[in-house]
Amino acid sequence: MGKHTNISLKEATQYCDPLKNGKTLSPYKKEGGRSQFYPNFILCNTSQEHDADNYISVHANFMLFALSPEIAAQLTDALVTNQTEETTVSSREVDVNIIDVSSAPKKLWNWILHANSESLEKYDYVWFIDGDIQLTSLNWHAFFMQVRIMRPKISQPASINDRGSGSVFKTLTHQRDPRIIAAEVPIIEVQAPLIEVQTWLKYSQFIQEQPELIRSISVGGENCFDMGWCHFAKSNMTGRQQHGIMWDKDISFRNDQTFLFDGANSSFVGRSCIVFYQTPIVHISKKARKTNGDSLQAGKAMCDFFRGEKGVIDKSGLHKVNKLFNYEPINN
């Protein structure tokens, strides 16, 4: 495990020197490492000697939702084959739990049903990842170093694909200026949100206490769910969503990184929703999910709830998450 980690870390930092020397790199191309080797300033300017307090090593177990019995069987067979062919010995076993959800193949419904206090006991984070998100495309070391340092309640890597943006929201895709590390935003999409377990459990409880939301989710409604949790994480569903100064504030790299490492006193630690721009992940497909009349009506009902009952979103909010940042030059 140690050797594997060291090799991965070496690969993750192999383009640090070009980055520091001002060379333009791209996560879309082989030159620059593609996204899984795409470096950022935080990783490249931090000592890699973290054996005692390791930012790098993250242990993850998996819960896979199979939309049909056939898919469940295929996943089980693939898992058995992989375990049989595995030749290296890991000091940590990875648990994989395959759940057949064909009787109720609704994404948010299964999140709430299966990601509960019992299944998430002893975990720090729960990461919900769609099947068309390429997990191996992430620079794992750089991403989790940022998470460990900033400790956002809800976050995601920037979303890209071969054609550019992997999201319809421009504020959630990769920023070319490598000094723009992250930003606090009013939406983290349901594609690949990483959520503190306690934040998720409290938000899930809030949802379950709203009969109209549960009805909508049970028939496939998803709309505005991912704006609701940012409002919950920021203000516990009190007051109206604030924009401008409170949202879309960039977290930028400067030569003096102490603002990132000053613990609880940092204004950037413990933020509600943060997108990490310099650790993009590949969203293979941008096709809209399949919907029917019931799920469309359910989605509209969810937005109406959040808009009318909680003031989570309004016209300015919907406009805000679609704008593209215009950054001023950063003086180091």
Summarize the structure.
Helix content is 36%, strand content 14%. With 332 residues, it is an alpha+beta fold.
Map the helices and strands:
Layout: H1 2-12, H2 16-20, H3 34-37, H4 41-44, E1 62-66, H5 69-85, E2 96-100, H6 107-114, E3 125-127, E4 133-134, H7 140-150, E5 154-161, E6 164-165, E7 180-184, E8 194-196, H8 197-208, H9 211-218, H10 225-235, E9 249-252, H11 258-261, E10 273-283, H12 293-310, H13 315-320
Parallel strand pairs: 1-2, 5-10
Antiparallel strand pairs: 3-8, 4-10, 5-6, 5-8, 7-9, 7-10
Describe the structure.
By secondary structure, the chain is of the alpha+beta class. Helix content is 36%, strand content 14%. The protein has helices spanning 2-12, 16-20, 34-37, 41-44, 69-85, 107-114, 140-150, 197-208, 211-218, 225-235, 258-261, 293-310, 315-320; strands at residues 62-66, 96-100, 125-127, 133-134, 154-161, 164-165, 180-184, 194-196, 249-252, 273-283. The strands form 2 sheets. Strands 3, 4, 5, 6, 7, 8, 9 and 10 form an 8-stranded mixed β-sheet that branches. It has a two-stranded parallel sheet with strand order 1-2. Helix 9 packs antiparallel against helix 12. It starts with a helix and ends in a 12-residue tail after the last helix.
Q: Residue share in helices?
A: 25-40%
Query: Average pLDDT across residues?
Result: 76
> What structural category arises from helix and sheet content?
alpha+beta
Number of strand elements: 10
Whole-number radius of gyration? 20 Å
